[in-house]
Amino acid sequence: MIFGRSERGKPPVEPVTLKILVAGGFGVGKTTLVGAVSEIKPLRTEELLSEAGRPLDDTRGVEGKHTTTVAMDFGRITLREDLVLYLFGTPGQDRFWFLWDELATGALGAVVLADTRRLEDCFAAVDYFERRSIPFVVGVNCFDGSARYPADAVRQALDLDADVPVLLCDAREKETVKEVLIGVVEHAMAVGARRRQPATT
Q1: Under 8 Å CB-to-CB from 127, ≥6 apart: which residues?
Q2: Would you list the DSSP string of 70-117?
Q3: Helix H or strand E segment including 18
Q4: Which residue, among 86, 41, 88, has the nearest Cα to 69 in the 3D structure?
Q5: Are strands 83-89 and 16-24 parallel, antiparallel or unpaired?
Q6: How far does CA 27 lie from the centroid of its chain?
Q7: What's the angle, vertex CA 161, arms to CA 113 and CA 165, rounded to 5?
Q8: Is 141 helix (H, G, I), strand (E, B) or coil?
Q9: 47-84 b/e with 16+ CB inside 10 Å = b?
Q10: 2: pLDDT confidence band, cut at 50, 70 and 90?
Q11: pLDDT tens per residue across span 17-32
């Protein structure tokens, strides 16, 4: 069943829709990730990198990057007939972070995409979601030619709580991205369940 159509004799299923943010540093692969899994043509707000922004935009490791997201990326994926995710990719540069509060409103959780060559670039996103108590997972985007590290090593380098999932992925590959998205939904549901438990005295 897809949005109102169902098998003969079965009532249509009204899907639950969830909002997921995709965040991380400049050039880490957020736009690529959204595009890899979106079942609709992704909405992109990319502009060419300018000379004015060159001193601010660190292109180490992504020298071939010529555009940047200036507002958001948007995509949609149906995980099951009753579960649809709306994906909102955030801009990576700090001069566009004023948009994050608006994008974060109503979000179930987030993916913080990380590049092990520039791990420090995702510190700000980790801090943002920790401060606002928004559940998140870290998706390590395994770029060609970059060193591979165990999830626990990445967790330690980012000083993450033990319950924050760290998942390896390739932002170009739909199946690995789906695993990350499933991971954030499951993590957010587990966090929500813990928060609903009555406090013990």
Answers
A1: none
A2: EEEEEEEEEEETTEEEEEEEPP-SGGGGGGHHHHHTT-SEEEEEE-GG
A3: strand 16-24
A4: 88
A5: parallel
A6: 13
A7: 45
A8: strand
A9: eebeeeeeeebeeebbeeeeebbebbbbbbbebeeeeb
A10: very low
A11: 999 999 998 889 999 9
Q: 174 phi and psi, to 5 degrees?
A: -55, -45
- Residue 25 and residue 60: Cα distance in Å, rounded? 12
Other CB atoms within 10 Å distance of the CB of residue 118 = 18
DSSP-based three-state secondary structure for 77: strand
Rounded to two decimals, the pTM is: 0.80
Element housing 178 (H / E):
helix 174-196
Q: Quickly count: other Cβ atoms within 10 Å of residue 24's Cβ.
A: 28
Q: Which is nearest to 121 in space by CA: 57, 201, 71, 78?
A: 57
> Starting at the edge strand that comes first in sequence, how are the strands of the sheet with 83-89 ordered?
43-48, 67-80, 83-89, 16-24, 109-114, 136-141, 166-169
Q: Report residue 139 as tokens.
A: 């998706």
Q: What is the largest CA-CA distance in the chain?
A: 62
DSSP H or E segment with residue 45: strand 43-48
93: its two tokens: 């540069």
- Predicted confidence band of residue 145 (pLDDT cuts 50, 70, 90): confident
Closest CA to 113 of 15, 19, 17, 25: 25
43 forms beta bridges with 74
74 forms beta bridges with 43, 88
Instruction: Answer yes or no: are the C-beta atoms of 137 and 108 closer than 8 Å.
Output: no
